[in-house]
Amino acid sequence: MSEIKKSIRFFYLYMKRYKLGFSVTILAIIASTYFQVKAPVYMGKAITELANYVIGLAHGVSDKGSFMHSIWLLLLFYVFTVVGMFISNIVITFISGNATNRMRKGLFGKLQKMTIKFFDSHQDGDILSRFTSDLDNISNALNQALGQILSNLAMMIGIVIMMFNQNVELAWVTVASTPIALLIAAILISKTRKYIDLQQNEVGKLNGYINEQISGQKIIITNGLQKEAIDGFTPHNQNVKRATFKGQVYSGMLFPVMSGLSLVNTAIVIFFGGWLAFNGDIGRTAALGLVVVFVQYSQQFYQPITQISSMYNMVQLALTGARRLNEMFDEPNEVNPVNGKQISGLHSNVALKNVRFGYNEDKEILHDVSMNVEKGKMVALVGPTGSGKTTVMNLLNRFYDVNSGSVEFDGVNVRDIDLQSLRDHVGIVLQDSVIFSGTIRDNISFGKPDAADDEIIAAAKQANIHDFIINLDNGYETKVSDENSVFSTGQKQLVSIARTILTNPSLLILDEATSNVDTVTEARIQKAMDNVIQGRTSFVIAHRLKTILNADKIIVLKDGKVIEQGSHDELLDQKGFYSELYHNQFVFD
Amino acid sequence: MDILLSHAKKYWGDIFWAVITVFAMVFATLWQPKLLQNIINAILKDQSNKILSIGVWLIVIAAIGLLAGVINTILSAKVAQSMSADIRETAFRKIQTFSYSNIERFQAGNLVVRLTNDINQVQMLVMTILQSLIRVPILFVGAFILAINTIHQLWWIILVLVILVFGISATTFGKMGAHFGFMQKYIDRVNELAKENLAGVRVVKSFNQESNEQQRFDVVSDKLNGENIYVGVLFSVLIPAFTLVGNLAIVAAIYFVGDLAKTDPSSVAAIASFINYLLQVMFAIIIGGMMMTFSARAMVSLQRLREILDTKPDITYQDVPETDLTGSVSFDHVSFTYEGDDTPTLKDISFAVNPGEMVGIVGATGSGKSTLAQMIPRLFDPQEGTVKVGDTNLKDVNEHSLRKAVAFVLQRAILFSGSVADNLRQGKHDATKSDMDRASKIAQAAEFINRLPEGFDAPVEERSANFSGGQKQRLSITRGVIGQPKVLIMDDSTSALDAKSEKLVQQALNNELKGTTTFIIAEKISSVINADKIFVMDDGKLVGQGTHSELVQNNQIYQEIYATQKGKEEA
């Protein structure tokens, strides 16, 4: 229950600024409904007058005045109905569009503020689906369900009032079947839900099977397993067929059953109206008009019931969407110290002091790690997978906060430094390079969007990628994205090195790529790395022997502890873990 | 569309009854106004005795309409489900005849989408056709005829109405189409930006680019919103416009009946049903228009399924008797270019390997090692030259013979969900417990399989998440050796094993599979240093073959590779 409350609160927060728009919409809906339900009265009147006129003709009277009067009123009411409809539709379109747009931007803005921990502990696909399906569901519901439900509710109330004003007996006959209709709608909806869940389950299994088989098609072909693959497929396919059938029957049933009930109800109304014309205490011509009017009411009365029930699923999805967006908005933001210290660069040293850290509270990754790096030195971090190298990197520009101990720049705890100022002076080159959609220029000037052309070219030259870029048809204006393959893996890394060179950080964190690249690119990367490291303080998570040999200091991590540190020769002399690794040709992954 | 027709054959009976029930529904909908007219006539003419019989008819016909609707839904759902399941099965069967390059051309993920989402669209299409779409023309024609029949003097009102509704639909739906396209473009862009910001969250943060990224996103989001609102406004106009046209037609009908009443008083009784038919005509057009918009999407899906069904497998096997192939493998001037590539990946490669030999293949990434290996189990056919296994040209081989003779172990070990034993039996259908024991010992997998409480019956989860990379590779090797193949290809398939285990696997292969010809593709020369022959690949060419000591002497590229790796060992 509180879930629904939360979802509704979410909508309220986004909608409350449109109070004026909503007032206009509701007024327009009420007005248009009033005219719409009132119009049949004049239609009935017109027909009654016409009948009177025809009967009058027989008696030699020929007066069409009151008939024309009714016709004009009918026309007027119809026009007003349409105008009201139009106004409410337009206003709702703008409200729902703008509200969704604000949600979308807000969600993106929230992403920019959240902690790295959130991204590391959630799957991209799951976060992405909030941009796509959840926002989509919300937008659909706002666009369609909101207006429909409001106008249909108004319609139902209006018709009921009108009917009881016109003729109480006929009105009772018309609404008599409502409880049955509602009951049937409720049963159909709950059945649909039940079978759709079952169906999702079976569909999920089938998709899983197909996915696994087709992804593993190489194995299937080389082992000649095609027949087995089909044998495994058939039962899944049959299960889906069975499960989906029921879901589809129940969900497809709503509309025909409702229009069927509407037919039956109209039939009863006509029947009873006819009976009333002869046995009631109203005149025959008046009864005639009433029958025509009530046929319209009976049809209009059933429409809202059908419409609202068919909106149920949409609303349900939107509520789920709102809940899932809420989850995101409830996540904590990155902590930036109030009045944090602004730094102008690194002047003496970077140090980790007795750092203890774990991604989860119950599992500590770094146990009492200390290291100190003087300005201008290069440190190679080495150690087996899981030793904590990447974790150290995560702490240096405060992607994560330590559990105890401290990370200090020139003796100042990073927690006391303004986050933006800190990151302005720390540059990173990741193992997997990221290319943003846009031009190559945009990508290199990513950290400094106002960089001049010659700055960008200088950075690209230092990163050894300039030659490649100018040989492209559009040079620096070539459009790139993560998916199009302008760049090879190695070249992507060169671009990200250029990106970092341009921002001129005083501390550099570099995670060397392990992916296989051809020898030419490898040499280029090596050179670019030398360029970027030159004159900077740097931490390099090293995988290549050459990089390690270049380091001023090698720090060997194992199981979250610094076990050895020193120069290459010193470490070899120690004949410890490093020297053993080195001699056994183990890859430092 | 022909896919639907050919798969509908089995269900003509159900489809026939579905159509009949649609007719019954339309009949009930259209007959009701007639009966209303009769009642009104009866009232006008003061014939109270007729009321009861007409009333009973009214209710009976409405009940028929309701019942027909229910039956129609059940039949439609049944046909839609059965047909889509059949189409899915046909497509899946078809995919199983595909060669690997067929699959790569479609991309595996894309095939999965076609078998799931696209089939889903088709299923909804069939349901819609049977439930609503065939209703539209029947309703349209029926209501049109009945309307003219009811007050024939007013035929022109119907015509004007039809023209107006068609006109409005055509212009707005046309405009919408283009903007739906823009909308999709911006939706894709929103996703792209969100996706790259997720992938690059560390970069964005460390370069302090949060607000710039937000601006970039806002621009796209605003454009998307603009399109959403544009389409929304069109809809906001559309529905009231239809209502207005319908209402005007009603007013006009009543007005002109006022004229007619003088000469033809019965038209007064007819007016209510006339209006009803007018509205039915209008609804038929509107619903038809909306259904068409929806079906356009399903048509795209049908087209995508067609592509699967129309694809000719580009590798087919000769219908020749099964034979036992020996382990000799030879390439004769083999060249191969991947589809879409400009330059060949394999260039004029020739060699011959005798049964029982162990061959190492080394070379830089992209030099064509894996491609060469994939020609042996005939994952691809060369454009030029011939590949022979057991002295048989692979283009003339019996498929079953080839599968029995050649086993291929991939670098990325793929296991299927099920049990360990299920996966091993993929290498040999009737593998016994002792076969499994033997093979798992060779692959150094026995030690961890034996530690599993269920042993060979231990489950393999989806994406084999319950095994480590090294364990997966060892299981995959077990599957490769269990059938005692004549030719075994290991495509860098010990990359996740430590040096010691790798050595043990190789020793076991040497001892246990003496008669098997083995190809080992390796990054490290140390992995193949003891091979009978080492092939050196460079840029698609076979630039050297010989033993380690020969190549170290006389092959420059081999020397280069060896030097960099030796550096690691000795520097």
Give me a quick take on this structure:
The complex is a heterodimer of chains A (589) and B (571). With 589 residues, chain A is an alpha/beta fold.
Structure description:
The complex is a heterodimer of chains A (589) and B (571). Chain A is built from 20 helices and twelve strands. Chain A has 589 residues and is of the alpha/beta class. Among the domains of chain A are: 1-167, ABC transporter type 1, transmembrane domain (ABC transporter transmembrane region fold), CATH 1.20.1560; 349-583, Rossmann fold (3-Layer(aba) Sandwich). The radius of gyration of chain A is 37 Å and the shape is elongated. Helices cover 65% and strands 11% of the residues of chain B. Chain B has two domains: 2-310, ABC transporter type 1, transmembrane domain (ABC transporter transmembrane region fold); 329-570, 3-Layer(aba) Sandwich (Rossmann fold), CATH 3.40.50.300. By secondary structure, chain B is α/β, with parallel strands linked by helices. In chain B, the strands form three sheets. Chain B has a six-stranded mixed β-sheet, sandwiched between helices. In chain B, strands 2-1-4-5 form a four-stranded antiparallel β-sheet, with helices on one face. Classes of the chains: A alpha/beta (589), B alpha/beta (571). Chains A and B meet through helix 2, helix 3, helix 5, helix 7 and helix 8 of A and helix 2, helix 3, helix 5, helix 7 and helix 8 of B.
